[in-house]
Design brief:
By secondary structure, the chain is α+β, with helices and mostly antiparallel strands. It folds into three domains: 115 residues, Uridine Diphospho-n-acetylenolpyruvylglucosamine Reductase, domain 2 (2-Layer Sandwich), CATH 3.30.43.10; 119 residues, Uridine Diphospho-n-acetylenolpyruvylglucosamine Reductase, domain 3 (2-Layer Sandwich); 204 residues, Alpha-Beta Plaits (2-Layer Sandwich). Helices cover 34% and strands 19% of the residues. The strands form four sheets. Strands 12, 13, 14, 15, 16, 17, 18 and 19 form an eight-stranded antiparallel sheet that branches. Helix 1 packs antiparallel against helix 3, helix 8 packs across helix 10 and helix 13 packs antiparallel against helix 15.
């Protein structure tokens, strides 16, 4: 069962954050900092900044500020602190829990970071890159590749997601198995505090035990403690060979057994190990232009695995062949397709990355970003599926995700042609899924964060001591409660 607790008042209530629309003279003061051309006040032009992807968190604002320098961000925060104005940092607006949009009070100002978009430096010898927060993830990867290096964070939204938002949400993605979450890729941060002070922590050091490691306060904090304006990130050698395979298995337990075989053979060269059910592939074939079934026959479950070798393509392919050979010998592999080209591998990954999108034409869906210990993924899938089918027998579970790190996107599509009953039971369904997660001592927010969506759940999955410590940190760093009010706490 979820731990019972009495939710306490939010930290914003400790301060004096504005609860009415900013007056014209205050708006003019903010506009003067960035210039008229870089302040958005027209309601039509503001609308895209409020268009949160799932449409679950309608917000309102009279002003979007688009600073280009750290000095401008500092001046904005100083004025916000002085006037008690709530500031909502926003990157590429790809977040899924409502952390990047204001509330409906029209009292908060959006701080869009897209103009802080410089790659400040690349150091191939030190394997680091320093970039500003508004650089999109794909541009970071391209800048690293141009220097002969790899930045391994991989997300479906990387052409629009910005690195500042990735860091603020501690994004996960499909390469966590080999390289870790975003937190593991950050060496240093430049952060503007709520009062306008700037922490210049852009140190490219692998070892630095000189006191508290302050960057970790802001990674995953979803903009509630300060504004990340730049980061120094780790780079890696570009693999000399990559091999990708799409593999059919009978059940999740077989996928887990195959994962252990793959890890034993490829070690750290196993860079991805994803899983999906047949229904996810059916949705792709139905709604994704140009999609084809990679295999000859339908199967209950699939694994998409990737090996990256520092030696050669032949070496990566040899590992894949060895993994599949042992998988066949153990009776785990029913059928497989090994990509013969980069284009074919890209087509396989397109199927995996499109699962959430192809659910939309199937009607409404409930989505749960959860994690359990890797060994418990098969049992979790069985219990959670049974729980939701007991509530709505005709609903369609579409669980998929990162088997190699235990992160399951437990999505559920409505019954065919009947959304009303499904949505009426939405809260009960979500509670049932989270109850199963709790039994496995898992997480209700594996990689998307808390934002607004899961704020009410936090007191039931974090201890009183943990919550009290979070509130103390918030109160010290943001005593007026102006940083992304109403998010997380």
């Amino acid at each position: 069962m979820l731990r019972t607790s009495t939710p306490r008042r939010g930290v914003a209530s400790l301060g004096r954050a504005m609860t009415v629309s900013p007056p014209p003279d205050l708006i003019a003061g903010f506009v003067a900092i960035v210039g008229v051309a870089n302040a958005v006040t027209d309601p039509g032009a503001i609308r895209p900044y409020l268009a949160e992807r799932r449409g679950s968190f309608p917000g309102a604002t009279s002003l979007v500020l688009r600073p280009q320098t750290v000095a401008e961000v500092s001046a904005i925060m100083a004025l916000a602190q002085e006037t008690g104005t709530g500031i909502v940092p926003q990157g590429g607006n790809t977040g899924l829990v409502g952390a990047q949009v204001p509330d409906g009070s029209n009292s908060q100002v959006i701080l869009a970071l897209d103009r802080l978009n410089r790659v400040r430096s690349v150091d191939p010898d030190g394997d680091t890159i320093t970039v500003e927060a508004g650089v999109c993830l794909a541009s970071v990867k391209r800048a690293a590749e141009k220097a002969g290096r790899l930045f391994p964070l991989s997300l479906a939204s990387e052409e629009t997601a910005q690195i500042g938002g990735n860091i603020s949400s501690n994004a996960g993605g499909t390469a966590v198995l080999a390289y870790g979450n975003t937190r593991d890729l950050v060496l240093g941060l430049e952060v503007v505090l709520p009062g306008g002070e700037v922490i210049d922590g852009l140190r490219a050091l692998r070892k630095d035990n000189s006191g508290y490691d302050l960057k970790h306060l802001f990674i995953g904090a979803e903009g509630t403690l300060g504004v990340i304006t730049a980061a120094t990130l780790k780079l890696f050698p570009i693999p000399r060979g990559v091999a990708t395979a799409f593999v059919a298995v009978e059940r999740p337990a077989d996928a887990l057994a195959l994962f252990h075989i793959a890890r034993g053979i490829a070690g750290l060269d196993l860079t991805s190990f994803e899983f999906m059910p047949r229904i996810a592939l059916d949705f792709c074939l139905r709604h994704l232009d140009g999609a084809t079934d990679p295999l000859r026959e339908p199967h209950p479950w699939y694994v998409l695995l990737e090996v990256s070798s520092g030696r050669s393509v032949a070496s990566a392919r040899a590992d894949i062949d060895a993994i599949l050979g042992e998988g066949h010998a153990a009776g785990l592999v029913r059928e497989e397709r090994v990509a013969d080209s980069t284009g074919e591998a890209r087509a396989l990954w397109r199927l995996r990355y499109s699962i959430s999108d192809v659910q939309r034409p199937e009607g409404v869906s409930l989505k749960h970003d959860v994690a359990v210990p890797i060994k418990d993924v098969p049992a979790f899938l069985e219990e959670a599926t049974r729980a939701v089918l007991d509530l709505v027998p005709d609903c369609r579970p579409v669980p998929f995700g990162h088997l190699g790190d235990g992160n399951v996107h437990f999505n559920i599509s409505q019954p065919v042609g009947d959304a009303a009953l499904f949505m009426a039971a939405a809260k009960t369904i979500t509670a049932a899924v989270h109850e199963v997660v709790a039994r496995f001592r898992g997480s209700i927010a594996a990689e998307h964060g808390i934002g607004q969506m899961k704020r009410a759940l936090l007191p039931f999955v974090r201890s009183d001591v943990e919550l009290a410590t979070m509130r103390k940190l918030k109160a010290v760093l943001d005593p007026k409660g102006i940083m992304n009010p109403g998010k997380i706490l």
